[in-house]
Design brief:
Elements: H1 2-41, H2 44-52, H3 54-74, H4 80-98, H5 101-104, H6 107-130, H7 136-159, H8 162-190, H9 199-227
Length: 232
């Protein structure tokens, strides 16, 4: 009985350390994105090049998609160091793309929206970590919701409908609130007890950090669309 209790305690402690690593890497990624966006937004020369080149902006977006695809699909075939480098590189590229946010929205609304996002994300992530409810089925529905969001957003590029943008923004908030809980539970369950400190453990942490990073960033963007104050 004492051995079993000790084993369960050890497993819980290792799982907590794994989740801590995931959140640490996610936080590093967010910090890199924020610092890059803020720095570039304050550099008129770089912003002039970025805003003046449509090809460059498209290239950045394609680069981000490629990095996410490579990291999500081939992590197990690469070294932990390379996986880390790709994740951090993706965070920096995101920062370059998101620098335009500082030109559109006031810094006060960006800060307040970030705090709202952090609180919402934290609450839903805690729920996903502690709940006994299996969220697997919810994940399938939310994934379909993401596909719907992408399609609606692409259509609205041509329609330029403020109503459709408001609807997709509300839906986006709900979808990524749910995904935060779902991904947290998935990350908790994918941790393999006993491989702490190995390359596989590190790569699992990077993949988990990427999932939560994407949830946080998307939740922030949709909340900013809804509540952000644009500059005059």
């Amino acid at each position: 009985m004492g051995y079993n209790a000790y084993s369960l305690e050890q497993e819980a402690a290792e799982q907590q350390r794994f989740i801590t690593k995931v959140y640490t890497w996610m936080s590093i990624g967010l910090a890199l994105t924020g610092a890059t966006a803020y720095t570039i937004a304050g550099n008129e020369a770089i912003m002039s090049v970025l805003l003046g080149s449509f090809a460059l902006r498209i290239g950045l977006i394609i680069g981000q998609l490629v990095l996410v695809g490579v990291l999500a699909g081939f992590t197990q075939k690469m070294s932990a160091q390379l996986a880390t480098f790709i994740f951090l590189g993706y965070a920096v590229l995101n920062g370059v793309t998101f620098s335009v946010i500082f030109l559109v929205y006031t810094q006060e609304s960006i800060t307040s929206t970030f705090l709202i996002t952090a609180l919402t994300f934290g609450a839903m992530s805690l729920y996903g970590y502690t709940t006994k409810t299996d969220l697997t089925k919810l994940g399938s529905l939310l994934f379909m919701g993401v596909i719907g969001l992408v399609i609606a957003s692409l259509i609205n590029i041509f329609l330029k409908s403020s109503m459709l943008q408001w609807i997709t923004s509300c839906a986006g908030v709900l979808i990524f609130v749910g995904l935060t809980a779902y991904d947290t539970q998935k990350i908790k369950n994918m941790n393999i007890i006993g491989n702490e400190g190995t390359e596989e453990d590190h790569k699992e942490a990077i993949l988990g950090a990427l999932s939560l990073y994407l949830d946080f960033i998307n939740l922030f963007l949709y909340l900013l669309r809804l509540f952000g104050n644009k500059k005059e």
